[in-house]
Amino acid sequence: MPIPVDQILYDTIKKRVYKKIPKHSAYRSGLIVKEYKKKFQKKYGSKNPYLGKYTKKKGLKRWFDEKWVNQRGTIGYQYKHDIYRPSKRITKKTPITHGELSKKEIKRAQKEKYTKGRVYRFKPNKTQKGGTQPSDFKPNLSPREIFQLGSFGGTYWRPIYSSVVKKHLKNVHKTYPKSWWKGIPENHLSKSVYDKSINKYNVKVGTSLEFWESKQWIQPQNPYGWLHWYCDYYMGKRSDDDERQINRWKALAGPKGRFMRFLVTQILKKKGKWNDETISPKIRQVLQHWGYKLTKADFDNEVKRRATK
Predict the structure, then answer these.
(1) What is the CA 208 to chain-centroid distance, rounded?
(2) How many domains does the chain have?
(3) Are residues 86 and 147 in the same domain?
């Protein structure tokens, strides 16, 4: 095992990380290595932080980017049957994620973990057509990017009274990683009054929370709505509302989504380019709120589909 060049620095970081994350996990071990390398480089420059061979292992950055969590969407092992999987696919080398496992497979894996101490193989959920489920749920904006671009007039995470859960809510966004909101002004997240100038396309779109509640489209686990659910899903959390929320996204922003197709129609009518943001800014803003931005590939595929009808 490689030995840290600066053992005092390593032990200091280890103590701090152990205090922050008391329960043993691969994430905790990886975080110690990551923080030690970062501090060592700042102090010593390009020198090797470890003595011995095989010290420059690849994949640590990807591992952190994949955001490995247990089946509850949190870090660390709390129970004997906990299973640890990536919550986000980064490359083809990323192992099977939580989102690619069915509820039945997760329960099977938990049972195997409890009885045998480990899961020897995860089996991805397959659709009847043989594809990984859900293969057509592909938002291309992360929660951070949605707000970073400017969305909801800055009001999405404002304090609310939810008639669904019958209580006042505030600072819900602060339950997510701080890195999501780094560099984003608070008034772009929890502003009380809608300000369209905050939005990327400088337009006002959407209806009120009360309207969504009246239609019974809001579920207790995510009283702020679809994006609240997407934040949880992005973190690796799974619920019995996933199928409904995924289908809502597909109907609006997926390959057959009405808003995505309408945007392509408007671009073709005006003989514009796929990335001309002056065409249908309201539709683009709505799609952004649903974690999607039109790409050239999607535009070309839709044009090709229409040509072959």
Answers:
(1) 24
(2) 2
(3) no
Extract the tokens encoding 60.
Answer: 């640590």
Distance CA 256, CA 249 (A): 10
What does the alpha-carbon distance between residue 43 and residue 58 come to, in Å, rounded to a whole number?
22
- Spatial CB neighbours of 154, under 8 Å, sequence gap ≥ 6: 187, 188, 189, 190, 191, 194, 195, 198
Both 17 and 75 in one domain: the answer is: yes
Total-model pTM: 0.61
Q: Answer whether residue 256 is part of any domain.
A: yes
- Cα–Cα dist 12/96, whole Å: 34
* Tokens at 244, concatenated: 């409904």
pLDDT at 88: 72
Q: Which residues contact 93 (CB under 8 A, 6 or more apart)?
A: 59, 62
Helix ranges restricted to H, 45-139: 60-65, 103-116
Q: Is residue 9 part of a domain?
A: yes
- The answer to whether the beta carbons of residues 302 and 260 sit under 8 Å apart is yes
The reply to whether 254 and 193 lie within a common domain is yes
Does 164 share its domain with 282? yes
pLDDT of residue 124: 67
Q: How would residue 134 be classed by pLDDT, with cut points 50, 70 and 90? A: low
Residue 112 belongs to a domain: no
Pairing of strands 84-86, 68-70: antiparallel
281: containing domain: 143-307
Q: Residue 121 falls within a domain, yes or no?
A: no
Strands 84-86 and 160-162: unpaired
